[in-house]
Inverse folding.
């Protein structure tokens, strides 16, 4: 069976080739995103393997189905880039990797929080230039701070455990609160109360039509002045124009983002010699209290191994009609 990959990077090839030794599929790697412009690259493939910024709209899925594709394998957890209704209608099996390493993402969120707070990125550069001054590097203790976690699924839980280890008070908001987390000392609150009481807010919910722009002018105005916001979930959870305004007025004290609402035009590429035609990210990058990473929270050895293994096993199981009913990897 042939599988065509889109948005393929050298590290995808390394990990998928390694774990394909157990399967012997024919793997074809395309560097470009999947979209209307690239769908014709699919030839004689039964499965297509895509990542977060590939666009699986109804017309793209229709074109894939016409070419004989039967399986869409998302090598990620989020599926906001896929029209699942259209996939169902076309009889396409869509699978994903529901939990490859929640700790990888949670630990990156914490790394960003510690960096922006204790300014280790600035200290590193200063010391290398023999500037041993501490001016401008003042941070605050995480101990005893109130951390609001929005979305307490696998990643939110892992993040919560770490923050409790730091001695933080953890508040949470989720449309499905978790009793075990309440028993572990986390306080679930309505969203607006969490926003009002938190010193640090970390987003760990998926992007859905209901929570698009969850962080907007109105919700920002409810937050504590000087709040730190961390987003490792999806860019569309934050209205970028509104958060830039809140950074300018200092309502937001610091922002860490691993995701950005227009990231598909930028992330996962070296654009260092290009003119970037995106004034919003340029404005964000100009703030000294904004830390941006390019969707790397998942990027650990453990996570990439799990992604490759689960994806290839799922494709094999679907192909052999052995996928257990109700499996959490299946989206259709
Ligand atoms: P999960 O499904 O285990 O948990 C998501 C939680 O969010 C659930 O408890 C759900 O009830 C809750 N939720 C859903 N809609 C909500 C809403 N409107 N308000 C509040 N809570 C809501 O998912 P997960 O594995 O913890 O992943 C969370 C998200 O992290 C993914 O959807 C994805 O967008 C993102 N992610 C990012 C990276 C990265 O590299 N930056 C990697 C993996 C996942």
């Amino acid at each position: 069976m042939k599988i065509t990959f889109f948005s393929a990077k050298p590290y995808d090839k390394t990990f998928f080739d390694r774990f394909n030794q157990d399967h012997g599929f024919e793997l074809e790697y395309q560097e470009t995103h999947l979209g209307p412009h690239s769908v014709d690259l699919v030839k004689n493939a039964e499965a297509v393997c895509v990542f977060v910024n590939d666009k699986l709209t109804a017309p793209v899925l229709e074109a894939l189905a016409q070419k004989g594709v039967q399986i869409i394998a998302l090598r990620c957890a989020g599926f906001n880039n896929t029209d699942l209704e259209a996939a169902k209608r076309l009889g396409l099996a869509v699978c994903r990797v529901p939990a490859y390493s929640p700790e990888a993402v949670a630990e990156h969120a914490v790394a960003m929080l510690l960096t922006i707070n204790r300014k280790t990125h600035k200290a590193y550069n200063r010391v290398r230039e023999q500037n041993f001054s501490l001016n401008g590097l003042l941070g605050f203790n995480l101990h005893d701070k109130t951390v609001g976690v929005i979305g307490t699924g696998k990643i939110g839980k892992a993040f919560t455990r770490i923050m409790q280890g730091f001695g933080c008070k953890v508040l949470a908001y989720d449309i499905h609160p978790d009793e075990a987390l309440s028993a572990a000392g986390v306080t679930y609150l309505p969203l607006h109360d969490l926003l009002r009481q938190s010193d640090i807010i970390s987003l760990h919910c998926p992007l859905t039509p209901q929570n698009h722009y969850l962080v907007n002018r109105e919700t920002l105005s409810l937050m504590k002045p000087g709040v730190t916001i961390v987003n490792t979930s999806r860019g569309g959870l934050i209205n970028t124009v509104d958060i830039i305004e809140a950074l300018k007025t200092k309502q937001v004290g610091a922002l860490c983002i691993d995701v950005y609402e227009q990231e598909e035009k930028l992330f996962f590429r070296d654009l260092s010699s290009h003119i970037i035609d995106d004034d919003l990210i340029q404005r964000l990058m100009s703030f000294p209290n904004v830390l941006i990473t390019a969707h790397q929270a998942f990027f650990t050895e453990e996570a990439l191994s799990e992604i490759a293994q689960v994806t290839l096993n799922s494709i094999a199981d679907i192909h052999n009609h052995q996928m257990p009913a109700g499996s959490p990897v299946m989206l259709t």
User: Anything to note?
Assistant: The radius of gyration is 21 Å.
